[in-house]
Hints:
Number of helices: 0
Number of strands: 9
Strand order of the largest sheet: 1-3-5
Strand content: 25-35%
Structural class: mainly beta
Shape: globular
Distance between the termini: 43 Å
Helix content: under 10%
Amino acid sequence: MNEPYSHLTVRNNHIIARPTAENRDDGLFGFNEASDFSTFRFENNIIECRDKPRPLFRNDASAKSSLRNNRLIGITDTTRYPNPPAKAPSGLQAPLQFTCGVSDEMSVNGWIATLKKKPKP
């Protein structure tokens, strides 16, 4: 994100980062350092870096964000910020199920994305 932000909430997600063609060693999330990180909340997420561990944030200022009840897997800098547990479950509250695309041509069901067959003319 290039612009500074405030009041960002990321909650109840399951975020999976996999290695890319570019060998990334920087943090998973990159925010403008002028953002108001005191208003950022990361709650009840499962955040995992598969196959290539990485830091969570790309700059020191981001560590002022509030983290609560996140399961952090493959994150290398977890000691930089408190992440107290809570009784709420982490991750998605219900399986994903939606359509997307210009004409709803993609269907998402759980972890499976399917291109719908186009009707024959």
